[in-house]
Amino acid sequence: MAARFATVGNELYTGQRSHPFIQRSRLWFLLAALLVLASATVPLARGGFNLGIEFTGGSEFTISDTANTDVAPGEEAMDEVTDEEAVVTNIAPGTIQVRTGELDEEQTLQAADALQEAYSVGSDQVTSTYIGPVWGEHISEQMLLGLAIFLIMVTLYMALYFRTWKMSVAAIIGLGFVVATTAGIYAATDFEVTPSAIIGFLTILSYALYDTMVVFDKVRENVRGLFDQKDQTFAERVNLAVNQTLVRSLNTSVVGILPVGSILFIGAWLLGAGTLRDIALALFVGIIVGTIATLFVQAPLYGWMRGRDADVVAHAREVLQLREEREIGRVTYSGTPLDADGRVTSFPPLPEPEPDEDDEEPELQIVITGAEGFDEPRGDDGEPPAEASGPSVR
Description:
Elements: H1 2-14, H2 25-45, H3 53-56, E1 58-63, H4 72-81, E2 87-92, E3 95-100, H5 105-119, E4 126-131, H6 133-162, H7 165-188, H8 195-223, H9 234-244, H10 246-270, H11 274-306, H12 310-325, E5 368-369, E6 392-393
Helix pairs in contact: 1-9, 2-7, 2-11, 4-5, 6-7, 6-8, 7-8, 7-11, 8-9, 8-11, 9-11, 10-11
């Protein structure tokens, strides 16, 4: 299996194997637009996101040093006290957290007594706090401010590093796709949106940008000196760059998904730890969506934007015309020529240009004239010298 995987990676790098990331960009754009539309529809259909207590306000109870970490007793105890929906989670070994809507003073005392009885603990082991929605609003404002500063800095950095604003625009649009899709999946799973989830959202932007920088750097390397060669088009060279970094992108994603997936499984299904669950889901989904965005949104979008320039279009037309004259048969999506057996071969030489008529060397002309009409030198006696008589050659 490992040898086969290494062979596939080598074939992708040399161009022998190629996937049409750039050539089918319109299909990827359509699918991406549908995903974004679905991601926007899900929270609207469900009545919004499942916001945590930090954003809506409410009461929070913490039961510490309890031998029973089952969430069922806490849920039953809260059902007897209030009609507000309660979220009971095991946030740490021996610690249970209960979150519900805003309770008055009497309901708070009743809930504390019910939780003491449910988990067989003392009054000093149950603490209650009230969290107002103002704190959540402050977090939201700071998050939006940080996101705006992050996007501005990223745009400027990429424009200076790659010396083109088109890569910056493609990268930012791809990040928007990552955020929208991740938020839609978060809403579909009905997970709570907590400060931990916000941290996860901001973290995945950095990850998605890192993968994009790797791919775009390879794109810049491949298209350097594009117009000095007549073998491959711009789209083929960009597609080759995406295929060459495909294995690296997948390996990076798998390495990131495995530990995050373990945290998500342990936090959500085994421990019920809300903090681990919230941040792990955002990271897990974001890593996958970030990789998809780089391969199917950002790189194809840059290829589409740059490929519409007049110089690129003229070069592609010239390359394809010369390819017919050179009788090149099979070519991969990355512009790599293959022989009849499907192996990589070299491009045949370019046809020699036909010489211009103006550049042809003039033929040597020899004019022979006879003695008649020829002004010959004569001596003092008026007679031509003997050696000067006869025809001359000019």
